[in-house]
Amino acid sequence: MIPAELLRKKRDGAELSHDEIAWFVKGLTAGDITHPQAAAFLMASFIRGLSAAETAALTLAMRDSGTRYTFTTAPKPKVDKHSTGGVGDKISLPLLPLVAACGVAVPMISGRGLGHTGGTVDKLESANVNMDVDNKRGSELLAKHGGFFAKQTSDIAPADRILYHLRDVTGTVESKELITASILSKKFTEDLDALVIDLKVGKGAFMDSLDKAQALAETMIGVAKEVGLRMRILFTSMEEPLGAKIGNWLEIEESLDTLENQHTSPQDISELTARLAAAMLIAGGIAPNVNEALNVVHTAWASRKPLDIFHALIAEQGGDLAGSKTKYANLPKKAILAAKDGVITGIHARMVGIAGIMLGAGRQRTEDVLDFGAGIVFHKKCGAEVKQGEEIGYVQGTRTETFEAAVTHIAEAITIEHGSYTKPPMVLDEWDSAQ
Amino acid sequence: MIPAELLRKKRDGAELSHDEIAWFVKGLTAGDITHPQAAAFLMASFIRGLSAAETAALTLAMRDSGTRYTFTTAPKPKVDKHSTGGVGDKISLPLLPLVAACGVAVPMISGRGLGHTGGTVDKLESANVNMDVDNKRGSELLAKHGGFFAKQTSDIAPADRILYHLRDVTGTVESKELITASILSKKFTEDLDALVIDLKVGKGAFMDSLDKAQALAETMIGVAKEVGLRMRILFTSMEEPLGAKIGNWLEIEESLDTLENQHTSPQDISELTARLAAAMLIAGGIAPNVNEALNVVHTAWASRKPLDIFHALIAEQGGDLAGSKTKYANLPKKAILAAKDGVITGIHARMVGIAGIMLGAGRQRTEDVLDFGAGIVFHKKCGAEVKQGEEIGYVQGTRTETFEAAVTHIAEAITIEHGSYTKPPMVLDEWDSAQ
Asked: What is the ipTM of this complex?
């Protein structure tokens, strides 16, 4: 095969075969296909589109460009959850022990945060959790605890890293097929039986409308069907930040509170965690429908078994929750005050995420160093009545010189109006590749 | 401006502005725009197409990426000819002195041969002609001889060199807009008043049908109109090789014979040279129409003034025609024999060009070293009757180990049939941006 001939074919709108795509991605990873050739491929794929079979072939070729997990120990269904990214989205943390307690094995491999959304790896590293988990160690943790938290190493889908960077610089990011291949190639290295996608929709999300999210979901479901892996997709609202706390350690704290007591946890966190857990039980074949799955989830949650699993797993992975709690207590704080009387009708999640970057809770560039204790805490969220000058929440951290700008930015993200507020539903739609 | 934003715009089919294209090409030349970004631009431009204004902007940006000639000495119209490439196409050599003798100034900058077509630079270097001609030297030669032969240096349109290579590896060669920008960007550095294009059509050419050639011509005329330069395009037949001789020194030899006597020169060489010369006179404003232009051309040709100009110019540029003639005389030869009785109805020009590469008369790769004396001579061409075993022509050169394969290849390129043969017209069509 000759790279230019393959590019010519895609250029003219023809469908590439599984073997052609596999050959191209293998060559790219080996350095035989050059970055300009890959860039031309991305542009042609963007404009001409990729069929479900092509997208599946690209996903599998990218998955196979590096190492893969193969777990031998787990008789349980192996299911993971991927979120397309939100602000304050710490759901992975309570979710893993909750579904593990219900009989699903969760090999959870996550990335770092970049831009306005946080990353599970950074959150857990704020509590010193060691996330270097190889195949052997992963098998042990799956057998012992029903799950593990791992970080994506450079061995996982290296072709994705090349293409991800090239998409960024060549203006080919917003392709639903290329997004699908990027997300799924990494998740498919986890030796999964099923995958749940939390597809965020709204002002704080990459997909700002349900239409766009559904178009991406169709592509993802197409690939799942092509490769024979069950996929369940929840379309969930991402307008205001999730929960009351945003920041790496702060989100561990809120996760612990959530596992401690479902009913005192912020309502959005509680609902989304339960719904995603139910989806994982259904996708894993443990429960037949949402109602029955939710019953199993609520029973497990009330048993405190998930909290025990979380503590045991974090300890086994080297984390120190008590020590971190002490370490990040009593940080400098600055209040966020209500600009006027009224009802909070909006907290712009993306703007709050940007404020998090200002404080050092998130990264603008890969090389930025985080302040693990930094973040934002809301006392009041959408629907709450406030008086002018009342404390809506506060920022905290060690970089106090950033407080003023961050607080101003957050105040601008908050809309206060006279009148009433109706909360959008948390789950907007739910799809399943098996239905 | 941000490269990815500009690529996004072209990706979605919008028209880029003159300034955007100029900025992109300038950045590419400076190294601020990366090769992957340029590759993505080429693919998007190929699929979405470029408007006449975009193609003109790209052409001018590429022209301005390096040095340009500005001649101050010539009151005569400055006109050059570009051929899209044929086998045995040595027309530039007799053409320059012929039109110079008619009062047109010809600053002729050429490239080397690559693939099955030859290059003017290689041909003249077989006679030791020094083709490093800078602006000052060019002005002198224009004033003294009415023209000069120069080779394209790395200072000329460096952006074209980058894009040319990237088109090759990314499968984006066959775009009429990108071809147009590549050709014209280089020619437009010559400070021209007008340009004549010899657009080859047929089995030996890049464009194998008149339709395709006309589509390319439309794009070229569009750019000429945008930039206000007169362009005349001749669509000429390239089925069998041009003339009787193919090879670097051999084509100098045939050019000398042609200038010596128009009437004993091969008919195709004589006709094409006269028609292109007439086109240059018309484009330069020296003659109003083809008939009047041809009268001027034939009169000049008969005067032997063109032959004198050629000798004087070559001598002034350091060439040694007499010495080269001695040097390449009496080279080893091998006959090409007729496979059967009949009439020659086809000599596949591209296949003959490939045989030339085998012999060392042409290059497969840029770094190949040529055998200047090597080549092919035909005694008989299309329309001639032959007997089985009769000598149709011969190959010559110093690499005798290649003779057998080259002769076999040429024999396969020759079709001999019973019946008659009708020669296609040399000039298939003629367009002018001013008409």
From this structure: 0.88
For chain A, the farthest-separated pair of C-alpha atoms sits apart, in whole angstroms, at 70
Which CATH architecture fits B79-153+189-323?
Answer: 3-Layer(aba) Sandwich (3.40)
Whether residues B40 and A40 touch (CB distance < 8 A) is answered with yes
- Would the pLDDT of B75 be above 90? no
Decide: B127 and B249 in contact? Cβ < 8 Å. yes
Please spell the DSSP secondary structure of A147-211, one letter per residue.
EEEEE--TTS-HHHHHHHHHHHHHT----HHHHHHHHHHHHGGG--SEEEEEEEESTTSSB-SHH
Q: How far apart are CA B427 and CA B198, in angstroms?
A: 10
Instruction: Please provide the average confidence, as pLDDT, over all residues in chain A.
Output: 95
Interface test with B, best of A10, A32, A43 (most B CBs within 10 A): A43
> Rounded to 5 degrees, what angle do the CA atoms A356, A360, A366 make?
100
Residue B377: name the closest of B404, B359, B398, B395 by CA.
B395
Residues of A in contact with B44 (CB under 8 A): 43, 47
Phi, psi of B433 (to 5 degrees): -65, -15
Question: Which among A4, A8, A172 is the nearest to B40, CB-wise?
Answer: A172
Q: Which residue has the tokens 């991406």?
A: A216
Specify whether the CB–CB gap between A386 and A380 falls below 8 A: yes
Considering only alpha carbons, which residue of chain A is nearest residue B32?
A169
Q: What is the mean pLDDT of residues B252-264?
A: 95
- Largest pairwise CA distance in chain B: 69
Torsion of Cα atoms, A195 then A196 then A202 then A206, to 10°: -20
The token duo for A44 is 């042609």
CB pairs under 8 A between A and B: 90
Of B63, B8, B48, B40, nearest to B223 (Cα)?
B63
- CATH 3.90.1170.30 given to domain A330-417: yes
Task: Identify which of B235, B65, B233 has the alpha carbon closest to the alpha carbon of residue B164.
Answer: B65
The mean predicted confidence, pLDDT, of chain B is 95
Pseudo-torsion of CA B399, B401, B405, B411, nearest 10°?
Answer: 60
Taking an 8 Å cut-off on Cβ atoms, the answer to whether B47 and A47 are in contact is: yes
The helix (run of H) or strand (run of E) holding residue A138 is: helix A135-145
B139 part of the active site = no
Q: Is 90 exceeded by the pLDDT of residue B218?
A: yes
Among B179, B169, B165, B223, CA closest to B28: B165
Query: What ranges do the domains of chain A cover?
Result: 79-153+189-323, 330-417
User: How big is chain A, counted in residues?
Assistant: 435
Active-site residue, from A76, A78, A82, A90:
A82
What pTM, to 2 d.p., does this model score?
A: 0.90
pLDDT digits (tens, 9 = 90+) for B164-202: 999 999 999 989 999 999 999 999 999 999 999 999 999
Q: Which residues of B touch A170 (CB under 8 A)?
A: 4, 7, 36-37, 39-40
Alpha carbon separation from B231 to A71, B89, B156, B282, B297 (Å, rounded): 70, 21, 21, 10, 19
Q: At B336, is the secondary structure helix, strand, or coil? A: strand
